[in-house]
Amino acid sequence: MTYIRPKFRHPDLPKNDLGYTTKEYEGSLSTLCAGCGHDSISASIIEACFELSIPPHRIAKLSGIGCSSKTPTYFLGNSHGFNSVHGRMPSVATGANMANRELTYIGVSGDGDTASIGMGQFVHVIRRNLNMVYIVMNNGCYGLTKGQDSATADEGSKSKAGSVNPFQPIDLAGLALELGASFVAQSFSGDKQQLIPLIKAAISHQGFAFINVISPCVTFNNNPGSTKSYDYVREHIESTGKTDLVPEKTEILTSYESGTGTNVMMHDGTYIRLEKLASNRNPFDRMGAMNALQNARNRSEILTGLLFVEKETENLHQTINSSDRPLNTLMQEELCPGSSVLADINDELR
Amino acid sequence: MKPTDTKNPEYFHKVVDCQYACPAHTPVPEYIRLIAAGKYTEAYMVNWESNVFPGVLGRTCDRPCEPACRRGRIEEEPVAICRLKRVAADNKDDVKAFMPAIPSQMNGKRIALIGAGPASLTVARDLAPLGYEIHLYDEHEAGGGMMRSQIPSFRLPTEVLNEEVGYILDMGIHTHFKTYVSSLNEILDKGYDAVFVGTGAPRGRNLNLPGREEVGKNVHIGIEWLASVAFEHTHKIGKKVIVLGGGNTAMDCCRTSRRLGGEQVKVVVRSPFSEMKASPWEIEDAMHEDIPILENHVPKSFVVEDGSLKGMFFEKVMAEYDDSGKRQLVPAGEPDVFIEADDVLVAIGQQNSFPWIEKETGVNFDEWGMPFVDRATHQSSNKKVFFGGDSAFGPKNVITAVAHGHQAAISIDLYCQGTALTERPAPFTNLVSKKMGIHEWSYDNDVVNDHRFIVPLAEKKAALSDRKLEVELGFDIATAVKEAHRCLNCDVQTVFEKDKCIECDACVDICPTSCITFTLNGEEEDLRSRLKAPAFNLTQDLYVSDTLPTKRVMVKDEDVCLHCGLCAERCPTSAWDMQQYLYKVTKACH
């Protein structure tokens, strides 16, 4: 008669380079509906951070409002967190990132938080290429207010009550490509094998990394006729290929046939390996990615996997030439260098 | 792998590790839950039905259940199952009203039981309520067998034993105590419909070393000496005592010696300490009473001066192991050790002995003097004669004897009814959902973090001055309830219904011990290597579902499942459910 997660874990859980098990990356027990896709995404974030051996206290997780934005409570309990105003997570992420560029920033948002109230913030954070991971847990409905169609609901998708959505959806991945995002991926909460490597790659990417994850709402949008139900997504999923993140110290194996795989060197020395790429797909071709996305949509398919990555990208810190060091490490002499420096500046302006 | 057949009564039974390891398959989690609920009488009866001697076993059982306990695989110590059983026995109300009724009309069949130990008493308990006329023979003046003659009173008070033996003798059993059966033929001639032999392993092994014959009266065979103490024939022992042997009998001998005047009592074993046969807790209790245990000492000779015992010489050895792990004791090359002694107790093993069974009876023996007995039916080569307990397959323990007794009773019943002994009734099983509502289960699914609680002991000085003062005091109720909550409720099974599953992964994400994986099917070895957490424990089964719509299967490693119910809690379609599985071994009489 209790709903508390026991403290015991499997005694032989694998440990990462820091000597931690996944337990150190867990959060509190989820209070979302049983079976919610968001919980699988939370689990994937936990697994990705564990596998990358990121110290939990070097991560900041940020969110807005909504079912999706509740999830940071359910993962990375030992990390920094900020649960911000509805649709305003990008502002808070930008401020935090500007103040301390040494943390890993993971923003979590939903289709309402991003595509409706937060659209203005979303497009600008892409435009600025802030170094962060931006995950949208996309279920096509407003789950927290009983399942009304959201801006990402497909035209013709049927709600639980039986009404059909008459409006065109906003394609977040397409929008991100259009606005110049340097890393764009799409995935499905029910496919962790694909999602975990994508999150790892997104964390390693030193610019704005966007992942749109279809995440069924079991309570309000898992009915026949919905295009965001577990069954529909499984039937209409189409993958761009297999993505994997190869740690820096691992030797690149060349066992696969040439031409079938590509390695993308990341800033931190790791590689994203793309295997079994669909023919005529090139992950560095923004136009190609936009076409592929549009073509899949015309076929009523959902294209998943890594859609586009820009190898050499300039993020916001580089663009505005901000401080190399976190602001909290700057001492008084550096912040207030004294009257002689002020005099020099004033002289320049005379 | 093929989908797991949960209809097989043994599948879920095996998940209840404690019950599965128990020779009598007592439903352990069931009675532990009853204890936690304060229902001691009910808990006692669950035990009594299965193992006949809850009060005795709650103090003296060999506890095969505890090393098997799942709790021992997720933290240091298993649940104190044995000591919780005692709590039920200590705190129960009068249980006489719950004992099976004896029919006023007997069925006309007469059965003889030779030896009044746990095996025979179990047969009596199972057959008397069915209307059999039971005749119980024993050489001693009271029933109980080795439970009375070999287990000292400071471990098992006589009142506890008398009470539980009494429940059976009160079933209208015809007792023939102080009657040594010297001929099986004589018994058979009395026209019994069947005879059950439960005479134990009554002969203690002797040690023939130089000087043995000259010091006859100060060298004693362990079990004979214990019996002599139990029946109040022996009241004291010398100040310096050597106990030879490293088994539980040796532990009982040394501790009894401490209470009969032994001041310098030493246990001397041939093997290394780590290989002693005695249960770890018995060794601990002996050492607590200031009894040193000397390892790697092989007895060489008795030293006699002027016709009286002075001590013994021992050769020091070392254990060496060959590639196959076989042990050999080789001389350590040190001078022999002399240990002073007024008395020596020899507790180096027990043997079976059947001088009273004649060849003409048709009961045949193998080259080691053991009867040919069917492992399942307990029938000997004389179809009328059945064996159980230590006398069937050599020395084991009380709980094994009880398990034998239940099986032999079924055989005797079938035999007397003219049914084939192989047509044994199936075990009783029952699987019932524990779901009450959202976040509501009708069992306590909260996994507590407490470590094993320690049973308090009587004050040492008082305990050593009174042979009959029970050393272990038993848990008080508050501690017992806390210890009971450590039980993981392994009998509340995680039952998976493949057709309801939508593969949302909620169970995988929530499981605290990473037991559940959804993956493509494969052979067992391959599957074990692909699970979310390693599945190294090959004694624990994988629970595999039929193929799901995504071509994957659900695989659950039963090894460290906490039975917390979170998988079922987080399942949106109730594809997982928590269902209590009750398994009862078939008995002649329920």
TrEMBL record, chain A:
Key words, A-Z: Oxidoreductase
InterPro entries with a match to the protein in the record: 2-oxoacid:Fd_oxidoreductase, THDP-binding, TPP_enzyme_TPP-bd
GO terms, molecular function: oxidoreductase activity, acting on the aldehyde or oxo group of donors, iron-sulfur protein as acceptor; thiamine pyrophosphate binding
Regions that span the bilayer: none
SUPFAM superfamilies: Thiamin diphosphate-binding fold (THDP-binding)
CDD domains: TPP_OGFOR
Chain ranges of the Thiamine pyrophosphate enzyme TPP-binding domain: 65-213
Pfam family, any one: TPP_enzyme_C
PANTHER family linked: 2-OXOGLUTARATE OXIDOREDUCTASE SUBUNIT KORB-RELATED (PTHR48084), BLR6744 PROTEIN (PTHR48084:SF5)
Highest taxon, organism lineage: Bacteria
Protein's name according to its UniProt entry: 2-oxoglutarate ferredoxin oxidoreductase subunit beta
A GO biological process held by the record: cellular respiration
UniProtKB/TrEMBL annotation, chain B:
SUPFAM superfamilies cross-referenced by the UniProt entry: 4Fe-4S ferredoxins (SSF54862), Nucleotide-binding domain (SSF51971)
Residue ranges occupied by any 4Fe-4S ferredoxin-type domain in the UniProt entry: 492-521, 551-581
A Pfam family the protein falls into: Pyr_redox_2
InterPro entries: 4Fe4S_Fe-S-bd, 4Fe4S_Fe_S_CS, DPD_II, FAD/NAD-bd_sf, FAD/NAD-binding_dom, Helical_ferredxn
Keyword Signal appears in the UniProt entry: no
Keywords from the named record: Iron, Iron-sulfur, Metal-binding
GO molecular function: iron-sulfur cluster binding; metal ion binding; oxidoreductase activity
Signal peptide coordinates: none
Protein name: NADPH-dependent glutamate synthase beta chain
